[in-house]
Amino acid sequence: MLRQPPAIEGYGGGGFRVGGEWITGSVLILDDVARPWPVPALADFSLDSLSPVLAEGMATVEFVLLGAGPVTAPPPKGLRQALQAEGLGLEVMDTASACRLYNVLAQEGRRVAAALIAI
Question: Is the distance from CB of 76 to CB of 27 less than 8 angstroms?
Fold first, then answer.
């Protein structure tokens, strides 16, 4: 039986409401499971912070949707190329936009990981 991807029902105030549960801080949604993600700011985002995504690989994930915080900003230098070397794309936007896009893509059945920095 296929799991239904969790919907992001709210964000702000330093956390997210995902699938009816409040998660304080940043969140990583992978394989239809939302979990706390210890990346408080874009400057802390690294290839290591995506180790759960890399462990799953392309069988589970087409690309990573990064919510960069309150405004869109480029990821740390070289990170996009490192993910491409692993076979994964990276889409970066502000967290609010990333939440909305994740909901659309998840309902379409797309294999997307959402790495969302809390605002």
Answer: no
- Distance between CA atoms of residues 102 and 78, nearest Å: 24
pTM over 0.85: yes
pLDDT (tens digit per residue) in 33-85: 999 999 999 999 999 999 999 998 777 898 999 999 999 999 988 899 999 99
Nearest to 7 by CA among 24, 22, 25, 20: 20
Domains of the chain: 8-116 (3.40.1230.10)
For residue 61, give both structure tokens: 């994930």
CA distance 107 to 119: 24
